[in-house]
Amino acid sequence: MGFSVSGATVVLFLGIFISFGIAYTTANNGFERVNDAYEANGEDALARQNTAIDIGNASLVDRGGQRYVNVTVNNAGSTTLSVDDTDILIGGNYTNHTSSNMETLEVNGNNETDIWLPGETLHFNLSVETNPDRVKVVTGPGVADSEVV
Amino acid sequence: MASVSSSHLILFIASLIIAASVAGTFTQGVQRLSSALGERSVDVSGDIRTDISIISDPGSGAVYNASGNENVTVLVKNTGSRSLEAESDQIEVLVDGRYQTNVGITVLDGSAWRVGNVAKLEISQSLDADSDHRVVVIVNGDKEVLQFRT
């Protein structure tokens, strides 16, 4: 009788140990995955809090019969922004950076860079057919500023 | 004497079989639970990483095209930390509380809706003039509201 009890106990405990191992590994992996996502979310929220932009000037210029929208935006926050991730809405319509209407798009006079550092000014100039009423600039983290032209 | 040891042997084997089946069932249950937990954690982390922002300018009058096709155009930016699928079965759109099935989705600045990219949602829905409206966009449980006037 003694052997039966000990044998059965060993088998049962082995099963419990294996189950615990499986459950622990999965729970740990899942917890880490969710925790990483929360951390990324927190970092994004911090970046958003530290981001601020300010449209300094939005004006309509007439040069040789062609109308241009001239906008300067100042990075007033403390995060480095990406020019590629910055979106420009002229009169509520999305304007692509590679659009043929985009005459200039530069940060502090440099049109090659993608980095828009704090304190630097983004300047863009694009030709328009009709007079737009408003300009909106949206940064990568989602912080936006709009201005009446 | 022989009958005693053989009955012991039978009891021993029986107890081992019962213990093994109990342990097997238990392990199988825990395994099933673990795989469900793993899949759920993938879903939950994806939902947490999803973040969208409606960047349309409601003050510009470009949201609703009253004179043309009578459609609502909403610009949605991916501001989270994962790529999203720009498919109409992944994006839920409600206009004035009504679920929209006729939604055209195009990514404006790239081939896929990656982080930082903007998707344009075109909703074929004619709206009353001079009235207030709201559009709700839901992606992976992240809900954004846009209010505008026609």
UniProtKB/TrEMBL annotation, chain A:
Gene Ontology molecular function: structural molecule activity
Entry-linked InterPro entries: Flagellin_arc-type (IPR002774)
Pfam name, any one: Flagellin_arch-type
Protein's GO biological process: archaeal or bacterial-type flagellum-dependent cell motility
Domain of life: Archaea
The protein's name: Fla cluster protein FlaF
From TrEMBL, chain B:
InterPro entries: Flagellin_arc-type (IPR002774)
Gene Ontology molecular function, alphabetical: structural molecule activity
Pfam families, per the entry: Flagellin_arch-type (PF01917)
This protein's record includes keyword rRNA-binding: no
One BP annotation, GO: archaeal or bacterial-type flagellum-dependent cell motility
UniProt superkingdom: Archaea
UniProt keyword annotations, A-Z: Cell projection, Cilium, Flagellum
Protein name: Flagellar protein G
Species in which this protein is naturally found: Halorussus limi
